[in-house]
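The pair is quoted verbatim underneath.

:::
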Amino acid sequence: MTGTKFFLFGRPPTAIHSVTVIQGIDVKLINISDLVKTKKASGRYTDLDDLENLKSNEE
């Protein structure tokens, strides 16, 4: 697709391809609840640390 840009999160087979721009229009990538679910599911130390930082910022 001309004018469409993609961003890749992770590695196959669990990689997520997100559309970031469609013909010059910015597209939201992920909402906060999906971000939290994704970071919990990954189980990586960096993602779990991100979750702690997200929680501390909510308070």
